[in-house]
Amino acid sequence: MSSGVTRQRTEQCFRVASGLDPHLNLEEAQRWARVINEGSAHQLPQRNGILYSEVRRPCRVLLLLNPHSGKGQALSLFTGHVQHMLQEAGVPHSLVVTERQNHARELVREADLSKWDALVIMSGDGLLFEVINGLMDREDWEEAIQTPLGILPGGSGNALAASIHHYAGSQPVPSEELLVSCGFLLCKGLVARLDLTSVCLGSSPQQQQRLFSFLSLAWGFVADVDIESEKYRHVGAARFTVGTLVRLASLRVYQGKLAYLPAESTSPGPSPTSGSPPSSPHTPHATSPHGFCSSLVCRSSQSQSPRQNNTNTFHNYCNSNNAFKAKRGGDLAPASTPRGPLDSLLVPLDQPVPSDWTVVPEEDFVLVLAMYQSHLAEDLHAAPNSTMEDGLIHLFYIKAGISRATLLRLFLAMEKGAHLATNCPHLVYVKVRALRLEPYSAKGTITVDGELVDYGPVQAQIHGGLARLIAS
After folding, report:
1. Could you tell me the CA-to-CA distances from 462 to 15, 20, 326 in Å, in that order?
2. Active site (annotated) includes residue 125
3. Fewest C-beta in 10 Å: which of 64, 88, 378, 399?
4. The pTM is what?
């Protein structure tokens, strides 16, 4: 409908006058509308080797909205931009406005999902994090996680929405145009697979915890900016720019041990021996198999850090507005609870990583960032090599010694996904299938999908195509 690079919503009104009877005219108009809607939906595109399926028609949608996300305007954005689109597309929906932290998680954990054909989140990325973990909490998790998920950007980061927009081949757009684009994709109702990453936290041997992530795992600079910028939430997406500048002014170094399983590894299983240093910062692309593993065990235990170093440590005092906090005794399922697929690539945290893993020789970092989607925020194209359901973790880390000016240039280049082309010697990028991070610093910040979790040893493994996502 538009010759520009952004999607625009327009209306064309037609008057049906096939006779004098208004009821017959109405029936004729409805027949035309029905045929047009059905005709547009039946085109199932295949892009980059991904075949899209279609949600049931008419699609009954449970729409969960966080009224406090972003600038607190999610409800008005929904009624102003999306509600009429859903009505015109014949998508019946029930709107639930969340009232508290973990409200959405509790709701989907107990809901009769047979009443809904899709779950749609109108918020930032935090509410989707709740929904995914609520689905994985269920005894019927294997069936529940197949419920198609939709995202409508209404928060500050909107990383998954920006990734979907990018995967559809569209140019970057501001927030409200991004909302219109995602609303159109929702009405279209085409479904692809979504990779999820199992994250095991080992901060307490009594409360081993596991959660599922759709976006990112971060430690260091990125995690600090994400959490500390909550105080600037009133400025919307600009909070991350402000937070970046503040953290650059007092750049920190973080001590820890990082190891990973390269994507090209073909080892059938783990063995308890140490890894070897990397030979190259870039690992050739490889795609892991999609699908489920029938076993339901997460193996995890307490790590023993060989080194304690309090240099450059700090106390984190900011909590996320949507925060899902993996505190001891909190709402995360213990590792012994039989939920989710087997983490076949991981060994307990108190054992050395398997022999086919790579152990990073450096122990001083500015940041460690694991991504499974293309965008970290609307304007941060952090993983330009990421594709939909590629079954990969895109791991980035920046070694200590980088200057503030160089780090700022990297983040400016990341707006267009050009940071890898800078050939910065402090930046390392590798495609992996699993990783382990063991912080040595006594205090710090770790985030999963932008949400604060308990600080301590953590390891993760990707599960390709575990969930379903409305995208095109």
Report:
1. 53, 63, 20
2. yes
3. 88
4. 0.78
Distance CA 398, CA 393 (A): 16
- Give the Cα separation of 227 and 126 in Å (integer): 12
Of 21, 112, 117, 125, the catalytic one is: 125
Burial of 181 (0-12, 13-18, 19+ CB in 10 A): buried
**pLDDT tens track for 90-147:** 889 999 999 988 999 999 999 999 999 999 999 989 999 999 999 999 999 999 999 9
Rounded Cα distance, 385 and 398, in Å: 18
Region for residue 449 given its phi and psi (left: phi exceeds 0; alpha: psi -120 to 50; beta: otherwise): left
What values do phi and psi take at 378, rounded to 5? -55, -40
Q: Are strands 149-153 and 118-123 parallel, antiparallel or unpaired?
A: parallel
Q: What DSSP letter does each residue of 247-310 carry, written as one string?
A: HHHT---EEEEEEEEETT---SS--SS--B--S-S-PPP--PPPS--S-----------S----
User: Could you tell me if 329 and 204 are in contact, meaning their C-beta atoms sit under 8 angstroms apart?
Assistant: no
Residue 159 has pLDDT above 50, yes or no: yes
Q: Give pLDDT, residue 174.
A: 81
